[in-house]
Amino acid sequence: MNHYFINNENIKSEKRVIKYNYNSYDYEFISDNGVFSKNKIDYGSILLVETYLKNKRKITNFLDVGCGYGFLSIVLSRELNIEGIGVDINKRAIKLASENAKLNNVSVSFKESDIYDKVQGKYDLIITNPPIRAGKKVVLEILKSAKKFLREDGEVWGVIRKDQGVKSILKELDCSYKVEIKEKSKGFYIFVLKNN
Q1: Which residues contact 24 (CB under 8 A, 6 or more apart)?
Q2: CATH code at 85?
């Protein structure tokens, strides 16, 4: 099976355009085979970005880990009018995300990185719809290691489904962060992690 969190150059390209409307703006995203949620915007990602925007605070930058074709980054950048960075291990996703940033006229830069390998600096917000299929170890690595890249009053926002082990994952983060569940819908949990 071809997973979206690996690079497979042999997957045939079949680009398509996905639309999303928020705050009276029509976003367009070019998607393709071999990337996460290639045919429609994932409900968990929509719930995550819309919950964040309802609860937003003033921030100057963000990091989107496992950015895929750039949905979270591009909506956040446009709605908050700030710059951000998106990282993903999938080369095709990064290429699409860069095209999508231009398409939607936002200042987000995207780079290929295995989790935080190529990440530098500190962020007010680290946001992620983690690749559950990569396994719990990878998901915990994304969430636990975020601490090193967070500003002191920074926050990590994420989404995981109940049936994908959100409760056990959040329990393991209890000793590293103050954990808060912000929203639950259709089995998806939106959570926030803050420095203790």
Answers
A1: none
A2: 3.40.50.150
| Distance, CA of 38 to CA of 68 (rounded, Å) | 9
* Among candidate residues 165, 192, 189, 167, the one with its CA nearest the CA of residue 178: 192
Give tens-digit pLDDT for 136-193. 899 999 999 999 999 999 999 999 998 888 999 999 999 899 999 999 999 999 999 9
Residue 1 located in a structural domain: no
- Prediction pTM value: 0.94
Residue 27, token pair as written in the block: 């976003």
Instruction: Report the number of distinct structural domains present in the chain.
Output: 1
* Cα end-to-end span (Å), the chain: 40
Q: What span, in angstroms and rounded, lies between the C-alpha atoms of 13 and 30?
A: 12
Strand ordering across the sheet containing 123-128: 108-112, 83-88, 61-65, 123-128, 150-161, 188-195, 177-185
101 CB burial (10 A radius; 0-12, 13-18, 19+): buried
Within 10 angstroms of residue 68's Cβ, the number of other Cβ atoms is: 31
Q: Is residue 58 situated within a structural domain? A: yes
- The residue segments making up the domain with residue 86 are 16-195
> Encoding tokens for residue 22?
């928020």
